[in-house]
């Protein structure tokens, strides 16, 4: 549904260094982590990511950074579903609270975004393991660049 094909210019020949095929699509880092966009519309997004050995910490649990990336990306996709295509926005702050470890399976992030004002969007996400156990909750604030 949200497949990617990147156009990679030679170094120094263009900005940005790749082009996503659609406004709502995973970037190379997100694809590296194995993320999939299952849904993104009306300020809500659902993304999944497989538990992979390369995403584990030393004790064999999913690394907190991988879970944070999934949650942050899920909120970003929820935001993209609210804004005009090609809008620019960035994460200003975020927090993640862990509730349970992830040991295997596919992790799912369910995110929502609410525009507070012209330049600020708040987001939240819940991360669930394959059995539906809530593994973490995430909150963030994004800043939208105003076009002139």
Task: Explain what this protein looks like in three dimensions.
The protein has 148 residues and is an alpha+beta fold. Helices cover 15% and strands 36% of the residues. The protein is built from 2 helices and 6 strands; from the N terminus they run αββαββββ. It has a 6-stranded antiparallel sheet, with helices on one face. The longest helix has 17 residues. The protein is globular, with a radius of gyration of 16 Å. It starts with 27 loop residues before the first helix and ends with a strand. The model has no long low-confidence stretch (mean pLDDT 89).
Which secondary-structure class do the elements indicate?
alpha+beta
Helix content: 10-25%
N- to C-terminal distance: 33 Å
* Beta-strand content bin: 35-45%
- SSE order in H/E notation? HEEHEEEE
Number of strands: 6
Main sheet, how many strands, which sense, barrel? 6 strands, antiparallel
Work out the radius of gyration.
Answer: 16 Å
Q: What's the number of helices? A: 2
Q: Output mean pLDDT.
A: 89
Per-chain topology:
Blueprint (H helix, E strand, L loop, with lengths): L27 H5 L3 E6 L2 E7 L13 H17 L8 E10 L7 E10 L4 E9 L5 E11 L4
Antiparallel strand pairs: 1-2, 2-4, 3-6, 4-5, 5-6
